């Protein structure tokens, strides 16, 4: 009887310890999650990223964008990486939010290297988180300790990708609401928007309302608007978010907002209405180190957005398909 009681108590203590690791029952994320099972994981990710960014700098903003678009749809679960099947639509096909995404082959390359080093161990969701950190650091931005231990979803949601991602034409109220729904506040919104200090918009439709007299057109530098109209009329409409240093991760994005040279309506909205968000823009424009620190904190916070409790998960062997 005493032995049975001791075993029961031991099992109860172990169960409570597991439940205490997170409020939703999921294990806490930890920077040392792979310390024993895949100690070289960060070096592998960094090596592949350094090689790819050196040959194609555009892969840095591409990978960073993948992480944002994944985490804002049912949490950071690598659902964005799943290809379409007969039974499931892909988030990659979400219009207009995801059809211009790039960098999937970089994640495939990292996953292949890790499967060689530590098979069936590192999740695609963790690869995205690590690759995003390195994408920023490789272009001169901050680095940070990435909490790990995410799992990969078995499902994708094209509908959620078309409805849950922030709208490039949205006003400040819409943006604040979208971020709040994911547990992110105004400071997180402002800092994370600074990711637009690198990369480009891929279509004139993303900023047409800013440069052709639509909403937000009265809050724009005239010469900037003229250059962007030329972009629309001369070709694909691709345009850098940051004209001066489009492939350097710095605080120029915020300086552009103050000069009324934000590319998207959702960019310029951060500095249109005054108040706390505009104050943050001014602070980041003057103090790049403060922006770097807040961006790193916000990336960790966004990277901790959990998938719904009901969602089944695994460590995928191939980031594009579920295990069978």
Automatic annotation (TrEMBL):
Sites where the protein binds heme b: 196
Binding annotation for substrate: 166
Binding site for Ca(2+) 2: 197, 242, 245, 250
Cofactor: Ca(2+); heme b
A single BP term in Gene Ontology: hydrogen peroxide catabolic process
InterPro entries given in the database record: Haem_peroxidase (IPR002016), Peroxidase_pln (IPR000823), Peroxidases_AS (IPR019794), Peroxidases_heam-ligand_BS (IPR019793), Secretory_peroxidase (IPR033905)
Pfam annotation, one family: peroxidase
Domain Plant heme peroxidase family profile: 28-323
Reactions listed under catalytic activity: 2 a phenolic donor + H2O2 = 2 a phenolic radical donor + 2 H2O
Keywords recorded for this protein, A-Z: Calcium, Disulfide bond, Glycoprotein, Heme, Hydrogen peroxide, Iron, Metal-binding, Oxidoreductase, Peroxidase, Pyrrolidone carboxylic acid, Signal
UniProt-listed Enzyme Commission number(s): 1.11.1.7
Enzyme class label: oxidoreductase
Keyword Cell membrane listed: no
Amino acids binding Ca(2+) 1: 70, 73, 75, 77, 79, 91
Signal peptide range in chain numbering: 1-25
Residue pairs linked by disulfide bridges in the UniProt entry: 38-118, 71-76, 124-319, 204-232
UniProt site positions, description: Transition state stabilizer: 65
Active site: 69
Source taxon at top rank: Eukaryota
Entry's Gene Ontology molecular function annotations: heme binding; lactoperoxidase activity; metal ion binding
Cofactor note: Binds 2 calcium ions per subunit. Binds 1 heme b (iron(II)-protoporphyrin IX) group per subunit.
Family the entry assigns: Belongs to the peroxidase family. Ascorbate peroxidase subfamily.
PANTHER family: OS06G0521900 PROTEIN, PEROXIDASE 72-RELATED
The name this protein goes by in its record: Peroxidase 1
Protein source organism: Zizania palustris
């Amino acid at each position: 009887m005493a032995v049975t009681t001791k075993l029961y108590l031991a099992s109860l203590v172990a169960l409570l310890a597991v439940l205490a690791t997170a409020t939703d029952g999921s294990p806490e994320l930890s920077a040392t999650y792979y310390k024993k099972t895949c100690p070289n994981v960060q070096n592998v990710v960094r090596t592949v990223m350094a090689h790819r960014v050196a040959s194609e700098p555009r892969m840095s903003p591409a990978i960073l964008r993948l992480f944002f678009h994944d985490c804002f749809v049912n949490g950071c679960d690598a659902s964005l990486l799943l290809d379409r099947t007969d039974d499931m639509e892909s988030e990659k096909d979400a219009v207009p939010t995801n059809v211009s995404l790039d960098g999937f082959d970089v994640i495939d390359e990292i996953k292949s290297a890790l499967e060689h080093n530590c098979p069936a161990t590192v999740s695609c969701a963790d690869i995205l988180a690590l690759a995003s950190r390195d994408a920023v650091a490789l272009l001169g931005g901050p680095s940070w300790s990435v909490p790990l231990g995410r799992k990969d979803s078995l499902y994708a949601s094209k509908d959620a990708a078309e409805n849950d991602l922030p709208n490039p034409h949205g006003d400040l109220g819409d943006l604040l609401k979208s971020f709040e729904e994911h547990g992110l506040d105004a400071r997180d919104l402002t800092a994370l928007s600074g990711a637009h200090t690198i990369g480009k918009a891929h279509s004139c439709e993303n900023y047409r309302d800013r440069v052709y007299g639509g909403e937000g057109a009265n809050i724009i530098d005239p010469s900037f608007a003229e250059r962007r109209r030329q972009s629309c009329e001369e070709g694909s409409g691709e345009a850098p978010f940051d004209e001066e240093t489009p492939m350097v991760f710095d605080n120029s994005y915020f300086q552009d907002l103050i000069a009324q040279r934000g590319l998207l309506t959702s960019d310029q909205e951060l500095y249109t209405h005054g108040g706390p968000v505009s104050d943050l823009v001014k602070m980041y424009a003057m103090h790049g180190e403060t922006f770097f620190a807040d961006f790193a904190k916000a990336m960790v916070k966004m990277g901790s957005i959990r998938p719904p409790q009901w969602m089944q998960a695994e460590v995928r062997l191939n980031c594009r398909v579920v295990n069978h």
